[in-house]
Amino acid sequence: MTKVKFATTWLDGCSGCHMSFLDLDERLIELGERIELVYSPLVDFKDFPTDVDACLIEGAVSSEDDLHKVQMVRERSKVLIAFGDCAVTTNVPGMRNAIGTAAVLERAYCDNATHNRGIPDEIIPRLLPKALPVHHVVHIDCFLPGCPPQADLIWRVLNELLDGQAPAAAKLARFGK
Amino acid sequence: MRQASPKAPSDDKRWRMIDARIRRLGSSPDALIEVLHTAQEAFGYLDPETLAYVGAALGVPPSRTYGVATFYSHFTLKPQGKHTCVVCTGTACYIGGARGIIKRISQDLNIGPGETTEDKRISLLTARCIGACSLAPAVVFDDDVQGKLSPDDVMTHLEQL
Amino acid sequence: MTETSPPAGRSPRVTANVCQAAGCVSLRSVELSKDLGDRLQKAGVTDAAVKRVGCLGLCAEGPLVRVPETGQLFSEVGVGSEAEAALVEHLATADPTREPRPKPSSFFASQVPIVLENSGLVDPEDIDDYIARSGYEALTTALTEMTPAQVIDQIVVSGLRGRGGAGFPVGIKWQTVAKSTTTDHKYVICNADEGDPGAFMDRSVLESDPHRVLEGMAIAAYAVGADSGYVYCRAEYPLAIKRLKTAIRQARRKGMLGQNIGDSQFNFHVEVRLGAGAFVCGEETALIASIEGQRGTPRPRPPYPAVSGLRGRPTLINNVESLANIAPIIRNGGEWYAKTGVGRSKGTKVFALAGRVVRTGLIEVPMGMTLREVIFDIGGGILDNRPFKAVQTGGPSGGCLPAEMLDTTLDYESLSEKGSIMGSGGMIVLDDTSCMVDVARYFMDFSRDESCGKCIPCRSGTTQLRMLLDKIVEGNADMLDLSRLEELASMVKATSLCGLGQNAPNPVLSTLRYFRSEYLAHIKERTCPAGVCAIASGEAKTS
Amino acid sequence: MNVCTLKIDGVEVVGTAGETILDVARSNNIEIPTLCHLDGLSDVASCRLCVVEVAPSGKLLPACAVAVEEGMEITANSDRLHRYRQQIIEMVFLERNHVCSVCVANNHCELQDKAAEFNLTHFDLCPVNPRLEVDATHERFAIDHNRCILCLRCVRVCSEVEGAFTWGVSGRGLDTRVVTDAGAPWGESDTCTSCGKCVQVCPTGALFEKGRSVAQEKPRRPFLPYLTDKAGVPA
Description:
By secondary structure, chain A is α/β, with parallel strands linked by helices. Chain A has helices spanning 16-22, 27-34, 64-76, 85-89, 101-111, 151-162; strands at 4-10, 35-39, 52-58, 61-63, 77-83, 127-132, 142-144.
């Protein structure tokens, strides 16, 4: 049996969803029997492969880098799962949306900086005017909200997907806790 | 909630007009909107002191007075400019060019709808329909309705105010 | 109030009826009537009178002056204009006994004035002039010769339906209020909070013939057993308010309002209450809240105001035009009224014809006339010979009908069947320079601004609909957005608390129905066929 | 006592005059979702979650505010109503800035519960993202307008139960806000009795006790029925 080519990635998030994924604990071994992990921030791969079967994507689309990344990931993945509240609703990264990018940068890099005050114009990716949920940028096949999504729920959803079913368990998820 | 009728904040004659209106309407909470009309006519806008006085005189809690004053678009809590320019944005005026008029005033005077020029001379307001559709597009300069105006006409009128 | 009049006892040979409704007043018709008086005096003309009257209808060509004795209408009579000189000449020399009466122009030919029968003929600030034209005769007849039940019967027989928009049968409303029991007061409210953009029928009636409305209210009060009433009028209509207040004062002095009206046992007191700029106050329960001095937010019905309205008492609410129909119905009988009209829509309807037509103004036509007749015969067709695109009726609660629907008859059922509504009488004609998506957005913007904010579907739904329409006119929408727009529109329609929210999606739904191709052009080709919307080309779509 | 029989979702039920559709449904274990309704306060019928279809007109009426009548046939749950209710909840989330994960009411929030109950996993429409204030001037309580859903329970409890009339409503449309007195900061209110009832009835984390952190605000609502009878009149 060929294993499902599986990837995870993140955009603007706190990596908490990935931690929750690791909370699958010993079930990770069982999962490993059914999938081949081809890309993830948790392991050391340089490039996102071109033929991924399923990918979990954490975080909101906040910067130009995120935008390019999510478009690339979408192109290369058959099934894309918005993973956690930031990806689904923008959550914490979206709290700046009401305030505006300029004010946020000013606060972070000028008001609160102790040295080298000034908004960087290189190295740091340029912010989009608003943080966006991933499905406002690319098509998403399955939504798994939660901050973070509970490990048990991740387990059920992944199993449903691997069994070739529609992921009904995602509907049990809730925003926030 | 009912208290003895409060004392007017100052000797300003205009308070007496308001008091007279309150008395005529029987000092009842029902009269709130009518009295706010009188007060706004007298002072040009409704400041916190006026709202507090009218509320106390009619036995209406401050939260209710403020709620009413902010619900209706006719009432304003900010002082207006010396002259007002109300651009009608009713349907006939809208398709007849009201948008261009507002744009022109905003550009030339550097104010948006609801704002007053820095020198406090002109306030730009919009109205949902002043019922002068046959004269579209129409603008009210102070209390004077003018119709079939081009942006240029409007600027000329504004200069002559 | 006549500027000049011939010596007492002699009726003038000719009269110049100078329009003093808001449109003409803004074109200096008050100064005109003074100036005319001066000129006639200077010319030594002593048998011509100048009279201030209400709306003459053809508002776009003001200031208007009609000489009823000769049937001549003078338009664009500015102070010192050539038209004024011609008018003075006519007044000085015309011999009404010999002058051939001109054929009425096509603007007036097919109109049937019932509501507006006095408009442009009586002096709106003179009760005697109103009385001279059978004014308060209906009230006196009702009080002396009819029981309240008989009055209501006539209204039922007339088939009159509410002219405010919804078209509920007036007689049935009256019956409900009459049947409601109370320990003390019942109220009659005249809804003069005409808020639809593009509608000025009620303003014009109040400015031209205020007593007519007061008489209707008094008859209604007698019929339902009410003893107090309010006219709830928009603060944006200062002239109408002034004339109403004058009329109330005069009627009180004449014993047509107040205690023991016409020496009967019937008492009825009327006061004016001002609106303060809230469209939603046209809705009955919001209007009541506003008269009670509160925020004008509607409440769920039932209970209906007819059972529990102002201050919890049974309350009858009719709009200006409905009430202006009452006196002629009582004078001539319900059957007479029912002869005009079509199907379940009896009588006439006043429309404010505006937009891209040649002749704009106030018109009154029998129910059942087609849109084509109104726009092309009365209105004279489209300005600059441009192609007709759509006609909007019913304001932000109504819809837009395309050229294929021009033979639709003006009656409640036909219009709603086609996806628009009769509404209060605003009728805006659009030509090919208007983008229908932009028009839909304009109305959604209106509804969003005027939403009272109480219920979620209206408060948030109008905002979301407006955001979707923004996306479309900016060229940033996809087909999913279009289906979202449709789904959301029907949800807001179904679940909103009051008529404002329930009808707010109508302009979107009707333009989607008849002008879908314009939506598709914005979405698929990213162009605006009318060239109205500024679509940013080549911009990457990010949200 | 006036008794009437009616049908809700095909089930024949009995109600008494004066009871609302919601009362009768609940006493017969038929679920109708609500958000602005709270036992013990008057009903405003503004959230529209409880709208039900009443035959034969098919009109949607709020179950919390409509009295039962003999022979009514009511659909309280259908696919159509379910979809409408989902859309209502979605729009409430999007009109302000709700961030469940960092909210004091996380996991004790009626809005969050409703989203889960209606299986909302994401929102199709765009957020409005208004810029809103937090008023923390009161000694013990604070209000975060980002989380307010305008159910007006605070306004009702303040006038109907406490009789203080501190809370009111200002503005209109999307700019509607709950306010204390004439719009001055809460801490400066001279009508507020600091009773805290508004905090207890808040369905979300908009009103909260100071010093509470994420997920720590648990409302204590059952006190209300002891204070008032059904119609919201102080007992």
